[in-house]
Each structure stands twice: as C-alpha cells, then as structure tokens.
Design brief:
By secondary structure, the chain is of the alpha/beta class. Helices cover 34% and strands 21% of the residues. It has nine helices and 13 strands. It has a five-stranded mixed sheet. The chain has a five-stranded mixed sheet with strand order 11-10-9-12-13. Helix 8 links the parallel strand 12 and strand 13. Helix 5 crosses helix 7 and helix 7 packs across helix 8. The two termini are 18 Å apart.
Amino acid sequence: MNQKYALGIDIGGTNTEFGLVDNKGNIELEGSIKTSNYESPTELVKEIAHQVLAFSSISDIIGIGIGAPNGNYYNGAIEFAPNLPWNGFIELAKIFETEFGVKATLTNDANAAAMGEKLFGATKNINDFVSITLGTGFGSGIVINNKIVYGHDGFAGEYGHIIVIPQGRECGCGRKGCLEAYVSSTGVVRSIQELKSKNKLNSKIFKIENPTAKNVFDFAKNGDTFCAEIVDYTAMVLGESLANFTCFSSPKAYVLFGGIAQSGVYFAIKVKNYMEKVQLNIYQNKVDIIVSDLHDKNAAILGSSSLAWKCK
C-alpha cells in the first residue's frame, strides 16, 4: 500500500510554499515558488501540481489544505487580499479541486499557522493562545478552548488591521494606521525612512540598496543605534497592541512566527516588556510571549495539511 499524504499549501504575499505531509506530521516534499510570478491563481495551482505530481501520484493524496491571506474557511475563497497580486473574490479551493480531483479546504494563513503550532509546535499543551505571524503582512490565529475562532463570516482574527495610530501610515487594506503597517516585515522597512531619529545619518542600513527587516534586526544586534531604535519601536507598538488584545480573549500565550520572529528571544523579550508596561493589572505576568519552535519546519504547511487530514 502506498504512503498517503495531505498536500499543505501556504499562499504568502511574497512566496507560496507547499508540502506533502503524512499523518505523523512529516513533510516528505517541500517546495517554494514566488507568488507574484503568476498572473493568475490558476497558473500558480498548475505549477504546484506540476512539481507535486513529479514526486507523487494523485492517488496518494488524500486531500488539500490551504492557508491564504483573507482566506474564508466557510466558502473556500480568498476575498480581497491586499498583499496578493490577484484582486477580488478568488475561489481558490475550487481551483485546486479542479486541478487535482480531490477535496480542498481553505482557511486564513494565520489560522493555518496556529493549527500547525497546536499540533506540532510550542502550544501542544496550551488551550488558549494567539499565533502572531509577522511576515509581509500581519496575521493572527486565535485559539480559545482548543478551537480556532472563525467568527460568523470566517474572518475573525484580522488583528493586523486594527488601527493603532489614527491617521497613521497607509495600509495595503486601504485604511490608515493599521498595526500591520508598523510591525510586519514591510512595516519595519517603512520605518527606515519614516521613523524620526537623530541617529539616521550614521546608520549602516542606508548603505544597502534594498534593505530588509532582517537587515534591520541584524544591524541592531551588532550595535547600529538607529536600527536598534526601529526594533524597539516595533516591539513597543506590538507589545502595547497585544496588551489590548489580552482584554479580549485572555490567552495563555502569544506565539510569534515568521521572519521577524526568527530573531528569537531578543525581540520577544522586548515585546513582553512593553506589553507588561500597559497590561491591565488582572492580566499582568500571566501571558507569555514565546517564539515558535517550528521555524526549522513549516508551521503553515503543517497546519494547512491538517485541514485535509481532519476533513478526510
């Protein structure tokens, strides 16, 4: 009998990652393609099929799980995602089903990451937590009493689009001052030009043609004063926002995942300190800030693949 797999897909604003996952959470095939290289989602799906079916046959795939920005669990569609190259209402689950001939289930990418963290990562023994994905955008997957919170329309957890600075930076969603515009990788890069500081002139970050958030964090760790200010400012905005969110669901932990989070406890400690400074007294010192231990794997692929196993 052939090994059976779930195909897990993570659609990101920069890259789309995919993998074949067995029922024990082992990723047997893993690939990545640049999302913006494909003019339509159908072309992207066909490329994934081309690569996956070179490794395994369709008969070995029990189902497909997909995590995507603005992914709606209820209707299997991406709805007006600001960080993707395709606009409007995209029935992505249906496109995958047409291409592969097996059932496809879609959810928000942050929800998929939260599911992966719960099944295989740092929150196996935590029933109430929020997974924070700090990538091109900002995603949050809310788990209460061991269940993902979807809301009545499938869009619960868009915490990246709460307004933290009224009339602040323009966000990809069309509003101004959203959390995502400050603490995502994109937000960190924007801070290079937009954060006011007397230390700008001496920063090494301006010697790089196209600096990234990783450059900022690396320079900060190596003594660049301006980059350290950016990291501190990012941690402050995030920490204070998480203190507000605590009043909503009283989580045991926030789990940081994504490019920024890979800087490790260096950033997590800063976020924790700023959160505690403004935390409501009944929550103080009760909520942990932890870094995902799935960076060497892929929490989003593992989480999205679990949708397929669950719906089998």
